[in-house]
Design goal:
alpha/beta; three-stranded mixed sheet; 13 helices; 9 strands; elongated
């Protein structure tokens, strides 16, 4: 199948690679020429913009930073909508505000274009090995039609509901992950401040009820001071901003998410925006006056 792919960043690049490995032909677009070059070396064809891609491809994937970038790529000048034929399917795998997903989906539907909002969870490591978790919103028949394609990049793909539902699920995921990372950071800081080895505390609790994927993924990084980005604080802050906006739109109180947002804001203000979100531990270290390691 010939597939268009727009957005070849930390996540998009390995996802596109996995599609090529699965035997699909790709037409790709990205603002950074180096990202495009790495894909063309694997056999992809480059395009100048979304309109050029839509002339050639009946299925187009977008993997972009946030709502404004998706709106521009789809509805802006040189965007997908300019040339997409009725029957085209857009799979937006970006993590954006679900209200924007619903708006864009509605505009495309008027032109006979199907859209899934299908954000992912798992970060760069799972993007590389093709085991991402996909959560999809849109028409069930559209999801069923592209399920096998999604599974070229994923370990699981779950249909959640109508337009915007995929991004609601993703924001719920990000709310839980942020709170879990903060809880791990707070607990390890407490252990160190109390004079107990935080590494031993981690070993002691990981097999009990406190054990979690987040604990096992992030505690060792905190303890080894490894803040190389698997998922950047800047991006998690963006997701929580969208979560707060979406929650406020439906009058759903999210006080814990609001507190997590303030911690991430503090991290960004202190120059840690490009670090992994496990660097939230620095917030607790600074307030406690110790270093967890």
């Amino acid at each position: 199948m010939k597939i268009g792919f727009i957005g070849l960043g930390i996540m998009g690049k390995p996802m596109a690679r996995n599609l090529i490995k699965a035997g699909h032909s790709l037409v790709v677009c990205d603002r950074h020429e180096e990202n495009v070059r790495k894909l063309t070396e694997l056999g992809a064809v480059s395009a100048e913009n979304g309109a050029m891609i839509a002339k050639e491809c009946g299925v187009i994937i977008t993997m972009l930073q946030d709502s404004p970038q998706v709106r521009e790529a789809v509805l802006g000048e040189g965007g997908i909508l300019e040339t997409a034929a009725p029957g085209t399917t857009l799979i937006d795998m970006s993590s954006i505000d679900p209200t924007e997903s619903m708006t864009i989906s509605g505009i495309l539907a008027e032109k006979g274009i199907d859209m899934l909002d299908a954000p992912v969870s798992g970060g760069e490591p799972k993007a590389i090995d093709g085991t991402l978790a996909v959560m999809a919103g849109g028409k069930k028949e559209t999801f069923d039609r592209v399920y096998d394609l999604l599974m070229c990049m994923a370990g699981s793909a779950v249909y959640v509901g109508g337009a915007g539902s995929g991004n609601v699920a993703k924001l719920a995921n990000q709310m839980i992950v942020a709170s879990n990372i903060a809880a791990v950071a707070e607990a390890l800081t407490f252990a160190k401040k109390a004079g107990t080895d935080p590494g031993k505390v981690y070993e002691a609790i990981r097999g009990g009820l406190a054990g979690s994927t987040v604990l096992d993924a992030k505690a060792p990084l905190m303890l080894s001071r490894n803040f190389q980005p698997g998922f950047r604080i800047n991006l998690h802050s963006k997701d929580l901003k969208n979560a707060l906006n979406a929650a406020h739109a439906v009058h759903s109180p999210v006080p814990v998410t609001a507190q997590m947002m303030e911690i991430l804001q503090c991290m960004q203000a202190n120059g840690a925006g490009e670090e992994d979100h496990c660097a939230m531990v620095k917030y607790y270290e600074k307030t406690a006056g110790i270093t967890v390691e």
